[in-house]
Amino acid sequence: MSDSLTPEKRSWVMGRIRSANTKPELVLRSLLHRCGYRFSLRRRDLPGKPDIVLRKHRAVIFVHGCFWHRHEGCRQASLPRSRREFWTEKFARNVARDAANRAALAALGWRVLVVWECELRQDPLAVLERVVGELSPRTETLSYAELPDRREVWRVAEEKLHYRLDREG
């Protein structure tokens, strides 16, 4: 199937896709901030310019879009119908670059967490609990008392994403 847009229009559309301050990233940053975590953003001195850098915890978080970073098993990680060879090569380069960046950060002593766009859309509280659990010292018992309540998490996520999320139950 051929592309319904002209090459100029397709280029314009693709040029509007953000690499920073995406909606899933804003959701996670807002939730972490509400839990008392302070962080920096996209430090250029670290491999891959991680989306969120928590120096105190020696951890970095990448918030990956399922399409661009090929979330395995996710329906959003579909392959475009036009120019399949180009897209296959591009996605392979993205995945290889992501793996190299994670390995380089681990070699520097950083803990690397990856949060997927679809995870944040499905259950932002579960993602927040997982991230907080990873950031807490291993010897401490994790207390969820300081996490925002479920209603607050959903409200923040919906506010940042600008649409209603699917909620179970």
Description of the structure:
The chain has 169 residues and is an alpha+beta fold. It has a single domain (21-161), classed as Endonuclease, Chain A (3-Layer(aba) Sandwich), CATH 3.40.960.10. It contains seven helices and four strands. It has helices spanning 7-15, 23-34, 66-69, 84-107, 117-122, 124-135, 150-161; strands spanning 40-41, 52-54, 59-64, 111-116. A four-stranded mixed β-sheet has the order 1-2-3-4, with helices on both faces. Strand 2 (52-54) and strand 3 form a beta hairpin. Helix 2 (23-34) runs antiparallel to helix 7 (150-161).
User: Helicity range of the residues?
Assistant: 40-55%
Low-confidence stretches: none
User: What is the SS-derived class?
Assistant: alpha+beta
Strand order of the largest sheet: 1-2-3-4
**pLDDT averaged over residues:** 82
Report the top-level CATH class. Alpha Beta
Largest sheet: 4 strands, mixed
Strand content: 5-15%
Number of domains: 1
- Rg from Cα: 18 Å
Q: Could you tell me the CATH topology label.
A: Endonuclease, Chain A
Number of strands: 4
The SSE string, one letter per element, is HHEEEHHEHHH
Q: Given the C-alpha coordinates, what overall shape results?
A: globular
Total helix count?
7
Give the CATH superfamily.
VSR Endonuclease
